[in-house]
Amino acid sequence: MTSAAPQPATVRFRAVVDRIPAYVPGARAADPAAHKLSSNETPYPPLPSVLAAVERAAGQLHRYPDMFATELGEALAARHDVEPAAVVAGTGSVAVLGHVLQAFCDAGDEVVHAWRSFEAYPILVQLQGAVGVPVPVDVAGRHDLDAMAAAVTERTRVVLLCSPNNPTGPALAHTEVMAFLQRVPPHVVVVLDEAYVEFVRSPDPLDSRAALAAHPNVVVLRTFSKAYGLAALRVGYAVARPEVARGIRTAATPFGVNHLAQVAALASLEPAAEAELLARVDALVAERGRVHAALGAQGWDVPEPQGNFVWLATGERTADLAVDAAAHGLLLRPFAGEGLRVSIGTPEANDRFLEVAAAWR
Ligand SMILES: *Cc1c(COP(=O)(O)O)cnc(C)c1O
User: What's the Cα-to-Cα distance from 55 to each of 7, 24, 233, rounded to whole Å?
Assistant: First the structure.
C-alpha cells in the first residue's frame, strides 16, 4: 500500500461562515493564581448543596436527560407566574437566542440590536443568514431606543435589547422599554436579554414580566451562568407566550439541557440555596459600587454598571493595558481599540485591578 498525501477538502462553506468574526472567550488562566475577570463569572465556588445534587445525579450519566427539562420548566414557570408551556430551557441562553432566531428569521430578514453589545449577537444573526442592523449605543453606553425604533423596517423580524448591556454596563429603565414596545409593530419579536438581571439596582428596573403580559411579541431570556454560578453546566431559558415558545422549542437542540444542569439549576432554586446565591449577588453589587466609585475618583468615566462588570473606554491603549493587567495576575476582556470589560471579582482581585487602573490613569 502506498500512502498518498491526504487530499485537501474541497467542501465549500456558506460564504457567511468565512465572514463571521470568531467569538472571543475570556482569557483562561495559565497561572492558577491569576484572577479571571474576563467572562463575567461569579468568583464564588458552587454551593455545597448544589454540588451534592450534581454528584448524586452523576450516577445517571448513561441516561439521556429529560428532553423537556420538565421539572425545571415547571419551577421556572411558577416563579415567572406563567404556564410551563411558556418556558423553553436550553444549552445556555445563548443557545436559546439562536433558537429564537432560527424560529423567526429567514435569509435576509433583519435583526436590530445595539452595538457595542453582546458579541454573540452578530455571530448568531449572521449564522442564521439574517442581516444584523447594529445601532450605536450612546456615549454613556446606553441603548439609543429612539434610533433602534427608527431602525425597524418591514424586513425586521427581531429586535434584541440587552439589559444590563454587556459590555458597557447600563440597564434599561422599565418606562423606556414600555414606550419602546409601543413603537414596535406587534409582529416583530422583541427579545429582552436579562443575563444580569439579578445585579440590577436601579430606581426604575425593567419588569419583564409586565412587558410580557402587555406585549405578546416579547421573549425574555435568563441564564443560570452568572448570578447562579453555573456557567460550566450551560443552562438558560426563554419565557414567552406559549404560542411563541412553541416555535422556539421546535428549533431547540433535542436533549439540550443535560441532566446535571437540570439538577443543579433546580437545586439552586431551593429557597435556602437561592437566598445564599442572592446574598452573594448583594456582595458583588457592593463591590461593584466600591470599584465604580474608586475608578471615578481616579478620573475614569465609567458608564453606570448594572451588571457584575465595569467598562473602561481605553481606546488605543486597550491591548497594552490588558497585557499589563495579565502581568499583574488579572485576566480582563479587551475589545481591541475600544475598551476593557472587567468582571467584579473578590475584594482582593478588585483591589489589584484598581491598582492597575490607577497606574494607567
Ligand atoms: C453571559 C451572557 C448570556 C448568557 O450566556 P449563557 O449561554 O446562558 O451562558 C446571555 N446574554 C448576555 C448578554 C451575556 O452576557
Answer: 46, 31, 13
Minimum CA distance residue for ligand 1 atom 2 = 195
pLDDT band at 247 (very low <50, low <70, confident <90, very high): very high
| pLDDT bracket for residue 57 (50, 70, 90) | very high
Give the span between the Cα atoms of 147 and 126, in whole angstroms: 21
For atom 3 of ligand 1, the residue with the nearest CA is 195
Select from 94, 99, 234 the residue to mutate for testing ligand 1; criterion: most ligand atoms less than 8 Å from CB: 94
DSSP secondary structure string for all residues of 248-305: HHHHSPTT-S-HHHHHHHHHHHSHHHHHHHHHHHHHHHHHHHHHHHHHHHHT------
What does the alpha-carbon distance between residue 322 and residue 319 come to, in Å, rounded to a whole number? 5
* Residue 1 clears pLDDT 60, i.e. is over it: no
pLDDT at 207 over 90: yes
Can you give the pLDDT at residue 346?
98
Question: What one-letter code names the amino acid at 246?
Answer: R
Residues with CB under 6 A from ligand 1: 40, 92-94, 118, 162, 166, 193, 195, 223, 225-226, 231, 236
C-alpha to C-alpha distance for 190 and 202, rounded to whole angstroms: 22
How far apart, in whole angstroms, are the C-alpha atoms of residue 220 and residue 95? 14
Residue 21 C-alpha cell reads as 468574526
Q: Closest Cα to atom 7, ligand 1: which residue?
A: 92
Query: Ligand 1 centre from 9 Cα, in Å?
Result: 34
Q: Grade residue 2 by pLDDT with cuts at 50, 70 and 90.
A: low
- Kindly state the percentage of the chain with pLDDT values over 70: 99
CA 128 – CA 202 distance, rounded (Å): 35
Position in ligand 1 atom list of the atom nearest CA 95: 7
Distance CA 321, CA 327 (A): 10
pLDDT bracket for residue 106 (50, 70, 90): very high
Q: DSSP of 45-88, one letter per residue? A: PPPHHHHHHHHHHGGGTTSPP-TT-HHHHHHHHHHHTS-GGGEE
